[in-house]
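User: Structure tokens for this complex, please. No commentary.
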Amino acid sequence: MTLRFEQIVIDSLDPRALAIWWKDALDWQITYESAAEAAVEDTEIEIAPDASVHPSLLFVPVPEKKTVKNRLHFDFVPDDQAAEVERLIALGATRADVGQSDVSWVVLADPEGNEFCVLSAR
Amino acid sequence: MTLRFEQIVIDSLDPRALAIWWKDALDWQITYESAAEAAVEDTEIEIAPDASVHPSLLFVPVPEKKTVKNRLHFDFVPDDQAAEVERLIALGATRADVGQSDVSWVVLADPEGNEFCVLSAR
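Assistant:
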């Protein structure tokens, strides 16, 4: 079983501008750009790996339910997409329709409805 | 300038149950639990650091604006909280009121309104 925490996808009105803003805010680098998308990451990690840089997940209580599609979600890279999707659904994930139509990734939701994607294996 | 990407905070109806679900989904570990909160992280990273585990940020276009408080947001640990908050506001961040009252962290929003927190220095 392998799920590598690959990226946090952030819905944006202006992806490139927001990518540049975060690059500056964190002193990270633009590592990918297309007409529609941009990625930012800390390229120095490869030079000086530091476990503390990796974010953990902290679950905190709130009274309100999720009402709209999350503005942020997680992408994971599996070793075997079909097997991981099956395993996650067995754990309680559900398939989610966010209008993705015919794409290479699978959109799932966790037990509270938080969307995440299992990308194609690489 | 130092901002360490510390954790992704996930609002939850049942934090402990959701933490356990993600621990199982990712084969990570519960590394912190209180009456109200639980944290999950990949403790194996300390044993075998791998830059690819670190998530990058991918900005993708969507037509709709943010309408509600994000269900996910980022926390950062600064070396100097006041200085970092000042720097981020100068970059275009704004102070955000999500009902946090008198707390040790500062809630900001990026240029599209995405909330994030600058924790106290550690």
